[in-house]
Design a protein that fits this description.
Elements: H1 13-37, E1 45-49, H2 55-64, E2 69-74, H3 78-82, E3 91-95, E4 108-114, H4 123-133, E5 134-146, H5 159-178, H6 189-194, E6 199-206, E7 209-211, H7 215-233, H8 239-249, E8 255-257, E9 260-267
Parallel strand pairs: 1-2, 1-4, 2-3, 4-5
Antiparallel strand pairs: 5-9, 6-9, 7-8
Helix pairs in contact: 1-2, 1-7, 5-7, 5-8, 7-8
The structure holds S-adenosylmethionine.
Length: 272
């Protein structure tokens, strides 16, 4: 049974900040490339959902320029406003729940959400809402993890270490599933965008091997530490197993795969 409470609440500031930093380090380069491919340009009206640390929204604001604007939303935007880079004049930050709160229709040239819809049991209704919010000719870019296609432990040189990591990862996946996260919807994004009438649809998957001590490992440490108490209380994993896995994630000789990040985009038919 799922609840609608986000598992990785930004109020756990140390872990959430570490998560945002490693997500930006790992994925911004590809995200920017796909936003460029969608044609982001001066004067565009942009929407960034679940903006996290705001780094993608700030990049969009730079591309949109003074004639454009960016609306950056999050249920908890504390890291966007706290960032030393500040909030540019053409960017608005809004507390907004993409499931429950309204969005203007036919308002945006581009909408982006990374690692947000994957969490939401109402993700397909949210996709409908996002397509409505696009202007004709506007672009939707959705990026989410699929953790099942390529198991993380396949990259481990030492099979025992891989197995140990996989056990703690499965505990995390179980807690995520109980909150409504889908580990496999991202592979369907290509169809989901197409069946909503978007054209020029593309979907690309990227998986990366990471070493202990890298931003990829820091992300897993932040995630594990945030749910450690809940996972132990649920009997999914022991304190010792947690400790051993955190040590693996600090060991440069340990390697694992990231989940596959699908980046799917398409254009709403009509004039620009
Ligand atoms: C895993 S983080 C990803 C942050 C950022 N998009 C990135 O990829 O770096 C998910 C973000 O979505 C926000 N979020 C969760 N549920 C949301 C909802 N229903 N509406 C808007 N934002 C939400 C969280 O507060 C968090 O900042």
């Amino acid at each position: 049974m799922s609840t609608d409470k986000y598992l990785f609440d930004n109020a756990a500031e140390a872990e959430a900040r570490a998560r945002m930093t490693s997500l930006s380090a790992q994925h911004n380069e590809a995200t920017f490339r796909y936003l460029e491919k969608c044609g982001i340009a001066p004067g565009w009206s942009c929407l960034e959902i679940g903006a996290g640390d705001g780094s993608v929204a700030r990049w969009m604001a730079q591309k949109a320029g003074p004639a454009g604007r960016v609306l950056a939303t999050d249920i908890d935007p504390r890291f966007i406003v706290a960032d030393s880079a500040g909030v540019p004049a053409n960017m608005e930050v809004r507390v907004h729940d993409i499931v429950k709160d309204a969005l203007p229709e036919t308002a945006f040239d581009i909408i982006h959400a990374r690692l947000v819809l994957v969490w939401l049991p109402a993700r397909l209704a949210v996709l409908d809402k996002l397509v409505k919010a696009l202007k004709p000719g506007g672009w939707l870019l959705i990026e989410d993890y699929d953790a099942k296609i390529i198991p993380a432990e396949m990259a481990a040189a030492d099979a025992n270490a891989g197995e140990q990591f996989a056990k703690v990862l499965q505990a995390l996946f179980e807690l995520m599933s109980r909150r409504g996260l889908s580990h496999s919807y991202a592979r369907d994004l290509h169809h989901r965008l197409g069946e909503r009438g978007l054209t020029q649809v593309e979907s690309h998957g990227a998986v990366t091997a990471f070493h202990g001590g890298s931003p990829g490992a820091d992300l897993r440490i932040a995630n594990f530490q945030q749910v450690k108490k809940a996972a132990i209380e649920a009997g999914l994993v022991s304190d010792a197993e947690f400790g051993d896995t955190i040590a693996l994630l600090r060991d440069p000789d340990f390697t694992a795969f990231t989940p596959t990040m699908f980046s799917a985009f398409g254009c709403k038919p009509g004039a620009t």
